[in-house]
Structure formats: structure tokens, C-alpha cells
């Protein structure tokens, strides 16, 4: 299973379009693009739209509790939770061998200049899996404006730049598809 995800957590003000509707949108779009292209990877791609992240990660905890008996089937868990501004690469948590594979994979994104692999994936909703050794990835993007809108009345759809979101969706699509279609799972 290659899990792609974002969460719907606007609970105080605003619409939550950037935090974290953007992560949910690009995760949905990644699987939609793969389907529209008629691609069928070797492994299952699974979309999870988390809930309850701001209330202690209760949605992620419940999902983990329900699926942890199949942890050996999870190849990578991916979460986008820092907006969907201009992407620069991935945060990655995993073994050195897995990191080398992800670095090689990211070279496919040179045409859009998104090739960096940063230390440590971030994501409340994927932490349970990473603590148990499942490789994890998080989208890195230009967050200079993130806290202009984070949990504010300004977090509306007008914050989303369609071109930047398309780039984020491209990253999510390429990474999830390539990992799901590799001969072997990422090394643990």
C-alpha cells in the first residue's frame, strides 16, 4: 500500500482551504491523474483524508489502530500538511537505502525543478507509521506565506494558486506512482 493523504482540519476560523484542504486536494488529484492516464501500478494506492488532526490526531490514531496488523503491507505513507505553495521537494524518513531510492526518483522531477530530499518527513497523521518503521514522505514547499493564512479568516480558496497546486499534485503523482510500481518495496 502506498498511502497518500492530507487532512480536513479547519476547526476554528476560515475554510481551511490551504490548511489543509490543499493537501487533501493534491492527494485526491494524484490518484485521479493516475486513473485518468490508465496507469495500473503493481501496488495499491490509497487515499486517506484525515479528520481530527487538530483534536489530537484522533482520526490518524483510529486508522492506525484499525490497520496496524497489516503494517508490513505499507510501502510508504505520504502526508501534505504545510500548504500547497511552490514545491521544492520531499521530507523523507526511512533507511539510507530507501533515501537513495527516493533521491533517484526525485530526479524525474528535474523539469519542474523539484528535486530536493530533506531529512525527516513531517506529519501528525503519519507519525504512528513512521515510528513503526514505515518510510514516510511529506511535501516541502515555499511556506513563506503559510502563517499569513494558517488558522485565520483568510484561509479561503483565494489563497490557492492553481499553478502551484498543479506542481504539488505533479510531485505527489510521480512519487506515489513510481513507488507503487517498483518491483520491490522500499527497504526498511
Automatic annotation (TrEMBL):
Record's keyword terms, sorted: Carboxypeptidase, Endoplasmic reticulum, Glycoprotein, Golgi apparatus, Hydrolase, Lysosome, Metal-binding, Metalloprotease, Protease, Secreted, Signal, Zinc, Zymogen
Main localization (coarse): endoplasmic reticulum
Cellular component terms per the entry's GO annotation: endoplasmic reticulum; extracellular space; Golgi apparatus; lysosome
Cellular localization per UniProt: Endoplasmic reticulum; Golgi apparatus; Lysosome; Secreted
Entries under InterPro entries matching the protein: CPQ (IPR039866), Peptidase_M28 (IPR007484)
GO BP terms in the entry: peptide catabolic process; proteolysis; thyroid hormone generation
Assembly information from the UniProt record: Homodimer. The monomeric form is inactive while the homodimer is active.
Protein's UniProt name: Carboxypeptidase Q
Organism annotation: Calyptomena viridis
Amino acid at each position: 500500500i502506498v498511502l497518500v493523504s492530507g487532512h480536513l482540519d479547519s476547526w476554528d476560523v476560515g475554510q481551511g482551504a490551504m490548511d489543509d484542504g490543499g493537501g487533501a486536494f493534491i492527494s485526491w488529484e494524484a490518484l485521479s491523474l493516475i486513473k485518468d492516464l490508465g496507469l495500473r501500478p503493481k501496488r495499491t494506492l490509497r487515499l486517506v483524508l484525515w479528520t481530527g488532526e487538530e483534536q489530537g490526531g484522533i482520526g490518524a490514531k483510529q486508522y492506525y489502530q484499525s490497520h496496524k496488523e497489516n503494517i508490513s503491507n505499507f510501502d510508504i505513507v505520504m502526508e501534505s500538511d504545510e500548504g500547497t505553495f511552490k514545491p521544492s521537494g520531499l521530507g523523507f524518513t526511512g533507511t539510507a537505502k530507501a533515501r537513495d531510492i527516493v533521491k533517484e526518483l526525485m530526479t524525474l522531477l528535474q523539469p519542474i525543478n523539484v528535486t530536493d530530499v530533506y531529512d525527516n518527513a513531517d506529519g501528525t497523521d503519519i507519525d504512528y507509521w513512521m515510528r513503526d518503521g514505515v518510510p514516510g514522505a511529506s511535501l516541502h514547499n515555499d511556506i513563506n506565506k503559510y502563517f499569513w493564512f494558517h488558522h485565520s479568516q483568510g484561509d479561503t480558496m483565494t489563497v490557492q494558486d492553481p499553478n502551484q497546486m498543479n506542481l504539488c499534485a505533479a510531485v505527489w503523482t510521480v512519487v506515489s506512482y513510481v513507488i507503487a510500481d517498483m518491483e520491490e518495496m522500499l527497504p526498511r
